[in-house]
Amino acid sequence: MNTPKTRDFLLDNYKALLIFLVVVGHFIEEGYDSNPFLYELKWFIVSFHMPAFIFVSGYFSKKQTSPGKLMQKLIIPYLVYELMYYLLYTLILHKETKLYLLYPKFSLWYLMALFVWRLLTPYIRRIPAAIHMPFAILAGILMGCSSMDDNFLSIPRIVVFYPFFLAGIHFNREWLTKYRNNITKVLAGLLLCLGGVFLYADPIHRSLSPKIFYGRYNYEYLELSDMDGMCIRLLCYGISFALTYLLMFLIPDRKIFCSSLGNRTMSIYLFHGLAYSSFKQATDLLEHIYTWWETLALFGFCVCLVWVFSRKPFVEFTNEVARIELPKGPRGPGKKYKRGKKGTCTF
């Protein structure tokens, strides 16, 4: 008899935190420049939330998947949601756009990136980690020197964020269990507090753009020389890796009120982008978040969105899209196609 799989609540809770930060990070994009608190919060969020998300995605991608299954679970959903964005922009928001399948809209770059990472990583892993990890980081640093279009097939982000996916692939969960104790929790908490104080007091980062963490833009766009950009991106790698690991020492490892969100991140991630695009186009409220009450109201709104998009209709729709099968050749006599297995589609 098969033993049912038990949930890893620490990683579920971590993903729940990260998906909330993804939503908040997008919804403060329009107004963080005019709100000192949101400005520092934006820096904090972008410094680790996608690297950590990608790290966790890498950890859950240790098992090799066939190219056909990857196409089914990632590329077909990518095409479906690209079409949904296109219809939203053109029919409802009346925003001029085209169906640019090679230029992912908004947050859909992550589906494209996951497909490439999961497809290539089994071959990359044949090279010793002591070689492929430094080369992946070097490639991410050098990517900023390129003049490649920043959104074509999401190539810049695929290259820049790949080290975090590889780190997740190599991560040993038992290591965290072994070293996670009261002492390491206190040290992690102190280091995070010191980092927060430094962020608040440091004037240098205010002369830069938080887009340095986006992975999408080259150094010329960020108004940096290649040498300055490479040094800053190397520093960014260090910050992102440090925060990714430190937070794992502080996240609760038991079931809590938000643990269930960790198994529903895909629906939240995909649908919040449609909501954000609609909200941004329909009103300019996001550009005018000045007071604490307005800030709290925005956070409350983000909490509501996370809850709504984690509900059954959105989760089931996301799962059904990920179960759409690729077209197959003519059936032989007596052969039947099997429907994909049921399951929850997550990152």
UniProtKB/TrEMBL annotation:
Organism this protein belongs to: Lactonifactor longoviformis DSM 17459
Keywords from the named record: Membrane, Transmembrane, Transmembrane helix
Protein name per the record: Fucose 4-O-acetylase
Entries under InterPro entries matching the protein: Acyl_transf_3_dom (IPR002656), Nod_factor_acetyltransferase (IPR052734)
Pfam families xrefs: Acyl_transf_3 (PF01757)
Domain of life assignment: Bacteria
Domain Acyltransferase residue range list: 11-311
GO MF annotation: an example: acyltransferase activity, transferring groups other than amino-acyl groups
Presence of keyword ATP-binding: no
Annotated transmembrane regions: 12-28, 43-62, 74-94, 100-120, 127-146, 152-171, 183-201, 232-251, 263-279, 291-309
Presence of keyword Transmembrane helix: yes
